[in-house]
Design a protein that fits this description.
2 domains; about 220 residues; about 45% strand; mainly beta; 1 helix; three-stranded antiparallel sheet; three-stranded parallel sheet; Immunoglobulin-like
Amino acid sequence: MGNGMNVQRAHRGFYIGEAFDDGVKVKFAKEDGLSVDSAYDGIDIDKVKDDGVSVFRASGDGIVVYYAGDEGIDATGERGNVLRSNNKDFYGLYVYSAGAYPNNRGLYVAGTIYATGTKSSLVETSRGKEPLFAIESPEVEFMCSGTARLVDGMAKVEFNRLFCEAISTEVPLRITLTSKGEFSELFVSGQFSKGFLVKSVSEKKDVEFDWIAIGRRKGY
């Protein structure tokens, strides 16, 4: 038992104009449920009453697209698209991009992402790949941070360009200051569109400090 269906070279790997039930259904496959090696359109389905492509159980990969000049999978449905795994040890969706280098583009979503679980980054450590989790907030917010130093009791901090262009000017920023090495009574004496001013009322007038700024995302 090999592939459920394998197309080597074709203009359209598999075409269905209209189907009353499922466009393509693979119930059991020992290897790949559906495999198209080289085609202009790998799978082209115009109208389907139920599922466009349904792979019920595959010991290998349900659907594999290796080389696509445009979208690997382009699916539009009134109920969205569902990818799930019956095995808790495997991903419902696994995205592998051109060698899986850290800076390669893996997944692009034009819309909002909802997750009932956590959102994390995998970082290579001495124990292998370990997850680091994202900070969550009830509001749509961005954070910027850095280190600066008082000179004669004053400092001017400027944000980077991206943070400035991403945050709303209608919702006030929240800024936290922490002196380093020595105590100094720091406070934000003023804010402007690209940063803020810091002063100290302590005797320590030349102190390094860390800062965190949180702003509302523009449009939210």
